[in-house]
Amino acid sequence: MHWAVRQDFDRRSGTLIGWGLGLLAVATGLLIWLGYLLLAPYTLHSRTGTLECDSPVADSSFQNTSSRCGPERDWPELMLIFALSVPPAVAGTALCVSGSTRRQTTAHIFEVIEMQKSEERLRAKQDAQGR
Q1: Measured distance CA(114)–CA(108) in Å, rounded
Q2: In the structure, what pLDDT confidence band is assigned to residue 20 with cuts at 50, 70 and 90?
């Protein structure tokens, strides 16, 4: 009977870990996108022509508002991407930790139950031999 319960518990723990890994993948995707936007050079297209701009991290005139490249990739927009990655990262980490903790705890509990049953069988065997 307890093996069916353990399998159900393991299945639910695996589901928690799966959801956690999915949320961590979303957060990782957002952070990779943010890194790309911060490190990759980009091109501005306008009526007057195209302008090649350095990446925001490498461009010393990024905060200079007189430069045409500076205002194009604004820090609030970049920080929004970072802010959007934080909740899935936290939730994913919490789900992974809780799922693996559940799995380890149930494994420990069932090992203790098996040891208790083994001790009971040994005592019963010793009592049967002593009579």
Answers
A1: 10
A2: very high
